């Protein structure tokens, strides 16, 4: 990975991640499969102007799906959960 723009794909905004972010100040992101924890930390700190304390990652295996008579497999994805410093937060929706 050469550039930080390619590390973060999208933010995970679900009921579960929003409950965790309120309780533990932890936010979830879908990230590139080849990115490591240091690159994820640097990308979040650069784009959101926050201090990252901890990064936890997980790789989700692809699922087997049926498309008509054939069977295909979806690609695997990587999630990252980033814990921020006390008192800091990320605003995904401003004014809501």
Model description:
This protein is of the alpha+beta class. 23% of the residues lie in helices and 38% in strands. The strands form 2 sheets. The protein has a 4-stranded antiparallel beta sheet. A two-stranded antiparallel ribbon has the order 4-5. A hairpin with a 2-residue loop joins β4 and β5. It is globular and about 55 Å long. The chain starts with 7 loop residues before the first strand and ends in a 12-residue tail after the last strand.
Shape descriptor: globular
Helices, by number, come to 2
List the helices and strands in order.
EHEHEEEE
How large is the share of residues in beta strands? Answer: 35-45%
Q: Report low-confidence residues grouped into runs of 5 or more.
A: none
Q: What's the arrangement of secondary structure elements?
A:
Layout: E1 8-12, H1 15-24, E2 26-31, H2 37-48, E3 52-60, E4 64-67, E5 70-73, E6 77-84
Antiparallel strand pairs: 1-2, 2-6, 3-6, 4-5
Short summary:
The protein has 96 residues and is an alpha+beta fold.
Which labels suit this protein?
96 residues; alpha+beta; 4-stranded antiparallel sheet; 2 helices; 23% helix; 38% strand; globular
